[in-house]
Amino acid sequence: MATDYDTPRKTDDDLNEDSIEELKARRNEKSTSSVDVDEFEAAEGLELPGADLSNEELSVRVLPRQADEFTCMSCFLVHHRSQLYSEKNGNPICRDCGA
Questions:
Q1: What Pfam families has UniProt attached to this entry (predicted)?
Q2: Which pTM value belongs to this model?
Q3: Are 77 and 68 in contact (CB under 8 A)?
Q4: pLDDT in tens, 60-92
Q5: Both ends of the chain: CA-CA distance in Å?
Q6: Shortest CA distance to 79 belongs to which of 87, 68, 90?
Q7: In 3-state terms, what secondary structure has residue 48?
């Protein structure tokens, strides 16, 4: 949206002169734009801390660290060796943590 910077702007005195009816109308316009959300659907995907997950199964195949990978000693994520930034005290550091 283009803005015309040559038009007169309202001063503080002009802003205080807005009618009460106009202010109420603006407030009602803002409050009528609500989103219809199903509370049950929103709560269905929510996991609470300490929830019992003992009957859940892991659905992702986990591979051990490969020979061309390293574990960053700053963020403890496994990265490919091309992401090696440097070694600090003999511990590998990734590019994200080293930058």
A1: DUF4193 (PF13834)
A2: 0.40
A3: no
A4: 888 898 999 999 999 999 999 999 999 888 899
A5: 39
A6: 68
A7: coil
